[in-house]
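Record format v2
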Amino acid sequence: MANTINIRQLILGFLTQQPMSGYDIKRFLKGLSWLIDSPSFGSLYPALHTLLKDGHVTVEIVPQQDKPRRKIYTITDKGSETLQDWIDQPAASGVSLKAFLMRLILAGNLSEAHLTAQLKQRRTQVSAHLQRTADALQKDVGPGERLALDYGLAVANAELAWLDNVLGRLSKDTEDT
Amino acid sequence: MANTINIRQLILGFLTQQPMSGYDIKRFLKGLSWLIDSPSFGSLYPALHTLLKDGHVTVEIVPQQDKPRRKIYTITDKGSETLQDWIDQPAASGVSLKAFLMRLILAGNLSEAHLTAQLKQRRTQVSAHLQRTADALQKDVGPGERLALDYGLAVANAELAWLDNVLGRLSKDTEDT
DNA sequence: TACCGCATGTAAACGGTTACATGATTAC
DNA sequence: GTAATCATGTAACCGTTTACATGCGGTA
């Protein structure tokens, strides 16, 4: 039930879109800077080496004139399976917004079925979280914690409303097919 | 600008409320399970040793009959200063909801001035984040990322509404004084 | 008998950042 | 001449989890 966002899984997710070099992946990750601070090369390159060693990706060395050679990585079937397994595996309860959004991005590039699965899972978790938070507010807590709980409540309610909205739209689209 | 929630600072925060043993702190942290999964003993006890060595806390060994002896830790002036410094230091941009809520809890137990400072800081950050997210939505992105961005937008708007609400209430209270 | 709560602790492993090294090309 | 971009990589360090060890008392 350990479930944070792991670099290797992120990489596999990007390679699903297209073969890339480590440097390319870094650029892609920078594009997600609104969500996560992109991992450093110090973790990126070793992760690539591990994925290669484990047969999740293959490399092709591409020389360039006037520039350093690039190592283009391509995801293998085994790699795809591993990624799929990770996405399908239920997210740990209490898992952060960030981790969920990463899963959403990855799932959204697979299929609509995966996408709705993620959304439904989140719905279940957020409403459970909402309940726990409401319960915690009943107890006697300090002023800071009281505010924090209230904040959590507000965010959870907003999440729930959004999820219901989107899930409603998606199910309507399915009917129309 | 590295700014996640660090065990040592959490511990100092709890010890501000009252002297406690490591075991007690663990129990307290469990009470915050709606926010964070409480750190393991494997990080808690070593953290306590470090704090002791650095003069941020003092210990008193309390023997018990029929039960193992307890080590009660008390925060020192130096420890209080360190904590204060950490809370006053501006939170890194893009810092997570979790990290902010922890700061809120800690600040709420210090003074109302600290509390409003945290809230105002968060307001600035969330509105900046909102802007970045809206910008990112303009660009051409995959279906999953599109949804994720929209989700982020919804949550950020909810946060902003809540912050404005609370900040409004707090400033009114101050006028009435 | 076997596990749970109390209470403390250590060692190995993991996953990451920071800082470094290399070396060529282009832009100010 | 100084910095930035391209492109890869390693080593030291940090903070944390996991798994272990100890030992006693109460409970199912």
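The beta strands of chain B are 57-64, 67-75.
The two ends of chain B are 37 Å apart (CA to CA).
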